[in-house]
């Protein structure tokens, strides 16, 4: 393997690692977004329920 081939393979490995890290980050952000949405929905439902039952 020439040094150019080694460098290309190293760059491919870096790209794979970066893609994996970005995927994990996207899942983490999505999980937080879903959690915040559910909490906001529960609060809104509680307010609406209290409003209709007064």
Describe this structure as you would to a colleague:
This protein has 54 residues and is an all-alpha fold. The protein has one domain. It contains one helix and no strands. The longest helix is centred in the middle third of the chain and has 50 residues. The chain is rod-shaped.
Estimate nothing, just give the exact number of structural domains: 1
How many angstroms does the end-to-end distance come to? 78 Å
SSE order: H
Percentage of residues in strands: under 5%
Strand-pairing-aware structural class: mainly alpha
Instruction: Give the integer mean of the pLDDT values.
Output: 92
Spans of at least 5 consecutive residues whose pLDDT stays below 50 are none
* Total number of helices: 1
Give helix % range.
Answer: over 70%
Tertiary shape? rod-shaped
Number of strands: 0
Sheet having the most strands? none
Rg from alpha-carbon coordinates: 23 Å
Helix-strand blueprint:
Elements: H1 3-52
Observed structural traits:
single chain, 54 residues, mainly alpha, 1 helix
Question: Would you summarize the structure shown here?
Answer:
The chain has 1 helix and no strands. It has 54 residues and is mainly α.
């Amino acid at each position: 393997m020439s040094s150019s081939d080694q460098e290309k393979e190293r760059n491919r490995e870096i790209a794979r690692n970066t893609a994996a890290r970005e995927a994990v980050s996207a899942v983490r952000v999505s999980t937080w977004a879903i959690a915040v949405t559910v909490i906001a929905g529960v609060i809104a439902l509680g307010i609406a329920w209290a409003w209709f039952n007064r």
